[in-house]
Amino acid sequence: MSAFMETASELSLDLRWRRAVSGVLVLWTVGLVLAEVVLQVATGAAVVLSVVLLALGKLSLARDVRAYVVTSAALCVWQVASPAVALLTGASDAWPRGARYGQVLDALAGPAAATLGAAGVPWLLLAGVLAGGWLLAALLGVFQNRVRWSVELPAFLKLNLGRLHENFGTEESPRYAAGGFFSHRLRFAHGAIAALGPTLAVLGGVEQARRRVLAGVVVMGMLVSIYNAFARAALGAALMVSVLALLLLVQGAARRVGLGLVIALVAVVSLTPAWRARMEKALGNIYGGEREHAMSVGWSLVRDYPLTGVGFGNHKPAALATQDETGITDLLATDSHNLWLTVWAETGLVGLLLTVVVHVLLAKALIRRYRQGSLAATGALLSWVGFHVLAMVHYLPFHSSVYLSFSFVWGLGLCEGSDVLRGRAVRESFVALAKGSPGATS
């Protein structure tokens, strides 16, 4: 496995440490398409391993990566403490339920991926696992969209089979909600946005035709997966990210073909009765519908407790406490259907400001590496854009599988060595450019 550790890092780690890092990153990649429990196990292992390596002084992080790591840790600490602060100030009268409170550790996922990446990343292996996994997931999604899935799943996976029985078509021509290996259409579709960025970066940045063709097939598989999941916001975000990637990374006939495929997908959506019905409900859902209702309750929580919030994980009980006045339902009370509004309502102004700083520092670090030619940073930036498009109408951290997928991509975007995916000629030109060689090409 050490043969895959192509990286520009000068760090020299013992082979056992490198194998441990590689194994955790591969397991995390498998989790992107397989199951939330795999993601959680991989993330926990990554956090522990990164802390151990940092404590032993075996890793050296760039200054902007250190800033991202430290600020994320501060956000995690505040999330841990916020329920206690809410109890002391009277903003809440109970501790959040354990599963929801445990999500405070998700704030450390991106920093853990970035930290382990400093030891070296098996880029080719991760790319192969991601491509193969998503193609399998896409094929499974196509099957689930047309056949009522009835196979019982192991209880430890905690997958709700009923999610695959939602019919978005008609009784005569049913179209079931596709959820891939996750068996949950929104986790499946939103997680696709995280993986879509790196795949588009490979499509627009590699030299070898075979890799570009494979990346294009995977991109189409992801778009079809989102289409079959009937996830409106995810499809809109995917199309926006795809168009952005085509405009920034692709030129000539390839760009025209890509834009033509995007237009064709939009036409298919507009001609599909089930999707037309979904889109017609979308605006009503935001303006005067369920999302506006949830957001209005979120604003009421912010107005009542602007500085401290109601405590991380306490949005639902706090919102339900207003049920007599607002009429909020159990389902809508989960969050405010907006990232920033939910963060403010739960963790107050302190949590909101820390979250803003974390994302600003992450974006600045990724932009710097994108300008230096990093393929991983390019993909992470595209995923970052997709995340914030979705965040306008979803609180993505509620589903750990979704947030951990994005965090993994962001963390790897801060690592060196992803130019190995481009092809030898392009890679050598970037290395020469980085060294300031007179013969370097721009």
Descriptive report:
The protein has about 450 residues and is an all-alpha fold. The protein has a domain at about 1-130 and about 230-235 and about 265-435. It has helices at about 15-30, 35-55, 65-90, 100, 110-115, 125-145, 185-205, 210-230, 230-250, 250-270, 275-285, 290-305, 315-320, 325, 340-370, 375-390, 400-415, 425-435. α5 runs parallel beside α17 (about 400-415). The chain starts with 14 loop residues before the first helix and ends in an 8-residue tail after the last helix. About 50% of the residues are buried.
Count the strands?
0
Average pLDDT for all residues: 87
Rg, Cα atoms, Å: 22 Å
Helix content: 55-70%
Number of helices: 18
Portion in strands: under 5%
* Straight-line N-to-C gap: 33 Å
Shape: globular
Biggest sheet record: none
What structural category characterises the helix and strand content?
Answer: mainly alpha
Listing every helix as H and every strand as E from the N terminus to the C terminus, the arrangement reads HHHHHHHHHHHHHHHHHH
- Identify low-pLDDT runs: 1-11, 437-442
Subcellular location: Membrane
Transmembrane segments: 25-56, 68-88, 123-143, 188-206, 226-250, 257-275, 339-363, 375-396
Membrane topology: Multi-pass membrane protein
Protein name: O-antigen polymerase family protein
